[in-house]
Description:
Blueprint: H1 9-39, H2 53-61, E1 68-71, E2 82-88
Antiparallel strand pairs: 1-2
Amino acid sequence: MLGFDPLPVPFFLALLGMVVVYLVLVELAKQWFFARDAQQLPAPPPPVQRRHATHHISRRAFRFSIPVKVVPSGAGTGRRRRIRRDRPVRNH
């Protein structure tokens, strides 16, 4: 009705060949890309910066209480630190 003719068989063979070549090239490119990435040495992890244990206590308690001073008790004896609540912390 529109005057189209069927495509010849060599066209489909050429199309199939181009698709196969494309897929092979894509697989080769992926292998090259990921092999190159694996050869690079990973960067060393950044140093871990740890905050003092009292930082988290102070942050969590800030909204619910007056500022408190954390005083180390029994330094070097392995005992836990004690929170003094008898007087507020002064900012110097």
